[in-house]
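Input record (one chain):
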Amino acid sequence: NNSNNFVPIETPILTKNFAGIGTREINENGKQAIRDVYEKTTGIQITPQQKQLSSFTEKTITVKKDDKSNWTLIVKPDGSVINANNNKEITDERLINKARLKAKFYNYRVVENVNGIRYAITDDNRVFTLAETSMGKEISKDSSTYTNIIVKGYAPNFYNKYKNTIKSIDEAENYIKDALKKDRENTLNKLKDCF
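The corresponding structure, as predicted from the sequence alone:
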């Protein structure tokens, strides 16, 4: 039997202390596999938020630019952000991100209570603050804050168990690799169709 051949298995049920791995380039089959495992494990049917760029329609929103001013902005389907008062394109990255978040241009999940602040993790693994005073600020991928948010967002049980010891994505990856050794073959076979 060639070990490179994909062998389909029944959808697994996660154990209490499961470990997960991820990718930045998951396809629709991979997303469905994750939904299937979650639904079979929890018994809760989920409805995926499958917002495609082409389905986003122009939205006009009001955002707080600073302590003194609110701006009316237009978020276009291509992601550009226009000042509704003067029709000029916005170039301030934080204001652009704030407008895109508020208009729901980004598909994102919310991670709460990391350092007392709420964060958004986008489908492409960018992380933004959702706090009123700093909304739209992108968190650097090189920071420990980014690591904690990503790990908590994608593997909350893992995060809760190791939050005081994990200092980097590499360290988290090593813990996850160790946890996968027992069931590595089945896990890898299930995930092969995802990539």
